[in-house]
Amino acid sequence: MLSAFMREAGEYSRAFYEVVLPPIDIYELGGQLVVEMDLAGFAKDNISIKATAHTLSVTAKREEKTDEVDGVYLRQRPSRIHRVIRLPVDVDETVEPTAKYENGVLTVKLTMKGAKRVRIE
């Protein structure tokens, strides 16, 4: 009975983490809007990114290791994440965003609309 309770509690906590995670940072740097998102444990090939002028959508899936284990006591790590982020400024859709995935952190750079880098002489 305790085992069933723990399994059910793990599923509820997993669903919770799939909704509230991953943590993100958004900041401006040199005319670009930078979004950093923690996606540790997800393979780069299983991450999908879509950007519009107002939103950034990130979806990631992780393969389950069910046949490699003898028993499961608790599963809290999310198997999938879908996060739509409302961007604080408009971004230029004519400029291709760039993305980098390193050490479990996804970094997306989007050019802000109307932002121009000023060179100082």
Automatic annotation (TrEMBL):
Signal peptide: none annotated. Residues 15-121 form the SHSP domain. SUPFAM superfamilies: HSP20-like chaperones. InterPro entries: A-crystallin/Hsp20_dom (IPR002068), HSP20-like_chaperone (IPR008978). Coiled coil: none annotated. Gene3D superfamilies: 2.60.40.790. Belongs to the small heat shock protein (HSP20) family. NCBIfam families: Hsp14. This is SHSP domain-containing protein. It comes from Candidatus Marsarchaeota G2 archaeon BE_D. The lineage of its organism: Archaea, Candidatus Marsarchaeota, Candidatus Marsarchaeota group 2.
